[in-house]
Amino acid sequence: MSLINWKYKLFSQQRELMLDEGTNLTVILTVWKRNNLEEQIEVLLNQTVKPSQIWIYHCKDYIRISKLLKKYPFVEVFYSSVNLKYFGRHTLAQYVTTTYTWILDDDIIPSQTWIETCLKICKANNAIVCRSGRIIPPNDFYPGVIKSQIYLKQHFVGDSKIVDGINICEEDTVVDYGCSSFFFKTEWEKYFWSIWPFTFQNGEDMHLSASCKIREDIPTIVPKQTSVENVGNLKPAYSFDKHASWKKEGFNAERAGVIKYLIEEKGWQPILWPKYQNSLSG
Fold this sequence. Notes:
With 282 residues, the chain is α/β, with parallel strands linked by helices.
């Protein structure tokens, strides 16, 4: 056997061992200024249901990953010297060939059962599945700004209650848009791009949920999360570092513009605008 054939066989064996093509899922990770890549890859490889492919969107060159990737030769990398920000991941997702896509932020470390949970809920409810989300109050274009503890509990789903250092969600909950971790059917990217974004600087999370709701009445669901065994993020503290987007000046003002655009110009109707009842499949 030639050296080339031997290396190819070894690569195939590694891929078969680490990934599961039958899952029909591509995971898209982002590398920018946070150095959590190895931890994220390891938790993906230890899922109860493994992904079929792992893609990395490597934005700019703040973090060097070439040495790390030698450990994971089956991981695909897409490098951009241009900062395409949040929407760059959805540009990449248009090339995914698996049935499902899961995009997660660089500060998210899910439990080992998270893919299993997302697949079940996505299939049962034909829904986008996110680890947390927001329910927008009527006439409130700043749902990310906490007005009170009551406001927090009523409108922040999946990250308003903390037990043993992790955020919990007491039941499967329909929200207006999800945050940080987005599991969906790949074909829904056509709805995402069928409505041109208000800005490419912010709000891709709102845009995903709104466009799918507008085009095909696809809901966004935050699953029940009650322990380290089924939570969508084991390391919530990672989201409070100096790289957190929500800390940047003008962040919420930009998002207010996105919400106003999607509601007033594109016909998005959040749950409480006016209020309507939702039902979840069992």
